[in-house]
């Protein structure tokens, strides 16, 4: 039986779902956040230690400014209103990605959230925010060069955002696309991938459970026979 220590999710389809419902893309993002809450709660029940969520990519800056503003305001609003609940539920929040370009208000909120949840133990929820895997890889090389240390696989992995965690066992992508979109390119080398046609707001507990059930049956060789 395969243990599940780390699940990564590309939560694709919020905007399309909102339009499909004859409302706005931003309406879809708000509903998608409720699904995130459900999946975090379910992961806690199933004692999954790490959940990494692709929240805002380094390419998402190409979207309309009103949508970008809404996404950051939605995130900030959530943590301001729900920080006590996050702490009480034992959720540790960590941001991975390049924080330098984020709005100051959001940086302050997420820094406060990371600080106040750092000792929580039930689950680590990593939000990939202004995240791009190519940048992460180049940045890791730069750190090694700056430290003037040997370029080894271990030294390289020590300089990734995920240096202290196991690589994902499972990747889930909703929305019908079968690509990684510059997400955890190094870390997903041996990850089992599940691509779903349904949009993220339609992702249900039964879908999550089915993926876990299917994962358990997979023979993971990691290059062996």
Structural account:
The longest helix has 24 residues, at 65-88. Helix content is 44%, strand content 16%. The chain has a 6-stranded parallel beta sheet with strand order 3-4-2-1-5-6, with helices on both faces. Helix 1 crosses helix 2 and helix 2 packs parallel to helix 3 (65-88). It has a domain at 6-131 and 181-209: Decaprenyl diphosphate synthase-like (Undecaprenyl pyrophosphate synthetase). By secondary structure, the chain is of the alpha/beta class. Strand 3 (91-96), helix 4 (104-117) and strand 4 (123-131) form a beta-alpha-beta unit. The two termini are 17 Å apart. The protein contains 7 helices and 6 strands; from the N terminus they run βααβαβαβααββα. The protein has helices spanning 14-20, 25-45, 65-88, 104-117, 133-147, 153-158, 205-217; strands at residues 6-10, 50-57, 91-96, 123-131, 170-173, 192-195.
Query: What is the name of the CATH topology of the domain at 6-131 and 181-209?
Result: Undecaprenyl pyrophosphate synthetase
Taken from the alpha-carbon principal axes, the silhouette is globular
CATH superfamily of the domain at 6-131 and 181-209: Decaprenyl diphosphate synthase-like
The side-by-side strand order for the widest beta sheet comes to: 3-4-2-1-5-6
Low-confidence stretches: none
What kind of oligomer do you see? single chain
Order of helices and strands: EHHEHEHEHHEEH
The CATH architecture of the domain at 6-131 and 181-209 can be named as: 3-Layer(aba) Sandwich
- Structural class category: alpha/beta
Please identify the top-level CATH class of the domain at 6-131 and 181-209: Alpha Beta
Q: What can be said about the biggest beta sheet? A: 6 strands, parallel
Rg, Å, rounded = 18 Å
Strand content: 15-25%
How many helices? The count is: 7
